[in-house]
Design a protein that fits this description.
Layout: H1 13-25, E1 30-37, H2 51-65, E2 71-76, E3 79-85, H3 90-99, E4 107-114, H4 121-184, H5 192-210, E5 220-224, H6 225-242, E6 246-252, E7 259-263, H7 264-281, E8 287-295, E9 298-304, H8 333-343, E10 347-353, E11 357-365
Helix pairs in contact: 4-5, 4-6, 6-7, 7-8
């Protein structure tokens, strides 16, 4: 009968169980340690190229770590078993070896003592296996908690970057008005309210950042579509003019009685992001066309530019966080827009032809009850 495991030269499972039974028959006190190594999930040492080398490496490490063991065995797969003599200092020694990760690999382990924990071979093994299961589960829950904490920190980082990105929008509006005022001697008094509104908006965005944002929309109410579009065009005009562009607004079956239930500032944020992307994309003077259509029970907003267009292989990625083709920018703008539109029960899509331009299409549900609008 074969007593050794061919891949590790340690005892195999059957011979190890026989050794446990023999120790019990002799009336010896001992400790059974089961070790489960997390080495077959990409966490092995460099230079070890296959499973056999890895198992042999673990075998040598265990023999060096437990030179006084009564028995060492490959228990199953990447699990090993050690039979330790019960001596006064064995507890301190075993905990030092196992808890400090001095074996060089991450190991989950369990201990069962004879005769304190069991009075038979099978009961002792079952006790050790049960404890190993619970220890592995505890480690899994701990790792899951750490991952959740890491994910929360990632979200906080995304929020910080996203908020900085969004604060740039009102700053760009203010900068545009000031540049026009300086270069063309414009009196900014007619735009004083717009400027103050943008400053207020920055303050609100900062407040949301400090609160780490609230889930969903914070101010949903019926708002006139035309009012939103006129405001967006007015706010984008200075930047468009400074780049040599014009903005064209066309309405089809859309009038002041047409409402959408929305958070006004967030819808404005979406439109400004898309329009400003269009302004920056167009290297030659051109027109940004904004079209609003009523189709069945949906408002369809189309923003078209005559920029260089987006390659087809890049289109599936443009709404992904941090995806950007710009040298500056976080790549969060369109991702945030996509999420906001979805939160409003709508859809945001894009179509583009290289050399001709890009069209973004927003579809939102509508209502006609103006009496509910402030």
């Amino acid at each position: 009968m074969t007593t050794l495991d061919t891949q590790t030269n340690l005892m195999n499972y059957e011979s190890f169980v026989t050794c446990i039974s023999g120790s019990i028959s002799e009336g010896n006190e001992f400790i059974l340690a089961l070790l489960d190594f997390d080495v077959f999930n990409g966490s092995g040492h460099s230079g070890i190229v296959n499973g056999t080398e890895l198992l042999m490496s673990l075998s040598k490490l265990l023999q060096a770590a437990f030179p006084d063991a009564r028995a060492l065995a490959r228990y199953a797969g990447d699990r090993f078993a050690v039979l330790l003599r019960q001596t006064p200092d064995i507890a301190d020694n075993r905990m030092t070896v196992l808890n400090t990760n001095s074996l060089g690999y991450r190991a989950v382990y369990s201990l069962a003592q004879y005769p304190q924990d069991a009075d038979s071979t099978q009961e002792l093994i079952s006790t050790a296996e049960d404890r190993l299961f619970f220890n592995k589960r505890a480690l899994f829950l701990k790792q899951e908690e750490e991952m959740m904490r890491s994910e929360k920190m990632k979200i906080v980082g995304e929020m910080a970057a996203g908020m900085a990105h969004e604060i740039r929008n009102p700053l760009t509006t203010l900068k545009g008005f000031l540049q026009l005022s300086q270069s063309q001697n414009y009196n900014i008094k007619p735009w004083f309210d717009i400027i103050m509104n943008e400053i207020t908006r920055m303050n609100e965005l900062t407040g949301e950042f400090l609160q780490f944002s609230r889930p969903g929309m914070s101010d949903l109410k019926p708002i006139p579509v035309c009012d939103v579009l006129e405001r967006v065009c007015f706010m984008s005009e200075s930047q468009a003019v400074s780049h040599g562009h014009t903005i064209s607004l066309s309405l089809f079956n859309v009038n002041h009685s047409l409402l959408i239930v929305a958070d006004r500032d967030k819808i404005v944020q979406v439109l400004l992001n898309i329009i400003r992307n269009a302004i920056e994309a167009m290297t030659e003077p051109g027109t940004i066309h904004i079209k609003a259509k009523l189709m069945m029970d949906e408002l369809v907003l189309e923003i078209e530019d005559s920029g260089p267009g987006i390659p087809q292989d890049e289109l599936p990625n443009i709404f992904m966080p941090f995806y950007t083709t710009k040298e500056s920018g976080t790549g969060l703008g369109l991702s945030i827009c996509h999420r906001i539109v979805q939160d409003h029960g709508g859809r945001l899509t894009v179509a583009s032809v290289v050399g001709e331009g890009t069209q973004f299409c927003i579809r939102l549900p509508v209502t006609f009850d103006r009496s509910s609008c402030e």
